[in-house]
Amino acid sequence: MSFETMKQQDETYIAHTYNRFPVLLDHGSGALCYDETGKAYIDFTSGIGVNALGFADAGWVNAVTAQLGKLQHISNLYYTAPCIEAAKLLCEKSGMKKVFFGNSGAEANEGVIKAARKYSFLKYGKEKKRSTILALENSFHGRTMASLSATGQPVYHNYFFPFVEGFAFAKANDLQGTLDKLTEDVCAVMMEMVQGEGGVLPLEQDYVQAVYQACREKDILFIVDEVQTGIGRTGSFFSYQQFGIVPDLVSCAKGLGGGLPIGAVLFGEKTQDTLVAGDHGSTFGGNPVVCAGAVEILSRMDGAFLAEVAEKGRYLREEIEKMPHVQSVAGMGMMLGIALDTESKPIISALLEKGLMVLSAKEKIRLLPPLTITREELKQGLAILRETLENI
Predict the structure, then answer these.
(1) What value does the CA radius of gyration of the chain take, rounded to a whole number of Å?
(2) What is the C-alpha to C-alpha distance for residues 47 and 105, in angstroms, rounded to an integer?
(3) How many Cβ atoms from other residues are within 10 Å of residue 330's Cβ?
(4) 106's torsion region: left (phi>0), alpha (psi -120 to 50) or beta?
(5) CA-to-CA distance for 5 and 73, rounded, in angstroms?
């Protein structure tokens, strides 16, 4: 079926909550994908950080299809090996203690919010009203009502009032301003180590460590949202591991499933026993097929794999910084934001026309290539980017 026919049907039957690019993608392998005409595209997006191993990775496909032939779903009232194995690997690689599986990053953030408030309720009681979660301005934590309420960007708050109560905001990297807001009603601080949707803006290490230390002293839980930064994206398994901290709660999703929907809440020493039977749930959470894919991804993320991600990220940054019209490159590992001296949207469209898929983050070009992308594919994508910038 032609692109125009499919586009017409999309406009007829799909609720238009996304502005789509004019491409009908059909299949892919590694960091390359192809439209219905056979035109090739180098993918610097990973499906917004999801396809950690690229398209149709053989090991991942085999793991998922093998599980499909055994048991596609069973409720959480029963044990399944993939769910247990995925949780074990997550804990071993993160230093956390327990895992709850859901289906998305927003759900994972709902989970950390609920866990933080229950922890505080059990320890301090309802009378103390210690339930406020301090998030950061310019943050993004999801589109469900609680995760949206925790998001520090007013543009996402249009139309959906009233919001969930109990959230306050501090300016990122403003240490004194943040410390001043750690009042007696605050039960947790919630932050992304790199504000992805906010423009790929890393937090300063001294700021993170100082806020973390203040939280330890005040028994305020420290939550890290690793939905986009986690699962190897920044060159370490989780980005917080580069900041010298151990959070009390962590949310993750995206790259964990490699293309299938999954989210997870990780519980630290303090919080591991907070949620008990009946407190939280998810019909599809811990699905054996999705978890089988997650086990394949987690099993491959050893030290050598992560070191290669970090090295490819350095290479990307160094090459892009040499290009015309580039004002700065920010981010960590293979999560980079490019600030240009010209509008980015026409550049993004021109890159797609030439066979390079990239993303935006506010006014920046955002890059989230598959972690397995080859050096040759990186070079090819960078050549397209350089040529496009040179011909502005």
Answers:
(1) 21
(2) 14
(3) 18
(4) alpha
(5) 35
Q: Determine contact, residues 102/282, Cβ cutoff 8 Å.
A: yes
pLDDT at res. 1: 76
DSSP-derived pairing of the beta strands 167-170 and 132-136: parallel
| Domains, in order of start, for the chain | 3-57+313-390 (3.90.1150.10), 71-300 (3.40.640.10)
Residue 389, both tokens: 């910038």
| Residues 37-75: tens digit of each pLDDT | 999 999 999 999 999 999 999 999 999 999 999 999 999
* Cα 364 from Cα 328, distance rounded (Å): 10
Can you tell me the distance from the alpha carbon of 178 to that of 328, in angstroms, rounded to the nearest whole number? 27
242, 206 Cβ separation under 8 angstroms: no
CA dihedral 16, 19, 24, 28 (to 10 degrees): -110
Among 364, 359, 392, CA closest to 381: 359
**What order do you get walking across the sheet with 326-332 strand by strand?**
326-332, 335-340, 364-367, 359-361
